[in-house]
Design a protein that fits this description.
199 residues; alpha/beta; Rossmann fold; 7-stranded mixed β-sheet; 3-stranded mixed β-sheet; 12 strands; 29% helix
Length: 199
């Protein structure tokens, strides 16, 4: 699919984090990225990518912008969504060490612990095994998946630990695929969105 125009507009939540790098990855696989900062912008896209950042701050910004209920409604309606790092935390059904005022969308049945791989100084890179190939994962204050629900498919592991999971149209990663110059996971997500539109 690389380089193929598939007539898709995929939103990238642009409240915080490395959203620009995600936009570049999406553009490189032939779709139009849209920076999403408002409910109106969300309505213009077929799918959403939620980048890394600081999950509790992102939760607050989602509330103040009016995007939290808008995204929740779209998720309930089946909108394909890909969350990385903090984005994964926001999609999880349970945040084990979240702040009392922090909310999540409960879009994928996993329990996560924030910063469980260590602080910023503990950031690392490692190979990740998946059915679609080996990926170079960048882990920065990365969350750990401590429970995986029965309907969740583990599609990427670090050793034996799940770091890339999927449930229906929702994909979530503990790491930052946008920082490696390898857009294959973005391409995989775009394929999911394209296949959904054909059904």
């Amino acid at each position: 699919m690389r380089g193929l125009r598939v007539n898709l507009r995929i939103g990238v939540l642009a409240l915080q984090g490395a959203f620009a790098a995600h936009c570049e990855c999406l553009a490189s696989v032939g779709v139009e990225p849209v920076e999403v900062r408002s409910p109106a912008q969300l309505e213009s896209v077929q799918a959403l990518l939620m980048p890394g950042g600081e999950s509790s701050t992102m939760s607050q910004l989602l509330e103040s912008s009016g995007l939290f209920p808008a995204i929740a409604n779209r998720l309930s309606a089946g909108m394909p969504t890909f969350g990385t790092c903090a984005g994964m935390i926001l999609l999880a059904s349970e945040i084990l060490d979240g702040r009392s005022d922090q909310h999540s969308f409960s879009a994928i049945d996993i329990s996560v612990r924030r910063n469980a791989f260590g602080r910023q100084v503990d950031s690392f890179e490692s190979s990740i095994s998946t059915p679609i190939g080996e990926f170079h994962g960048v882990f920065i204050r990365a969350p750990r998946i401590e429970r995986v629900g029965a309907n969740v498919e583990v599609i990427g592991t670090l050793g034996e630990e799940p770091v890339l999971v999927r449930q229906g149209n929702v994909l979530a990663a503990s790491f930052h695929p946008e920082l490696t110059g390898d857009a294959r996971l973005h391409e995989y997500f775009v394929t999911t969105v394209s296949n959904m539109r054909k059904v």
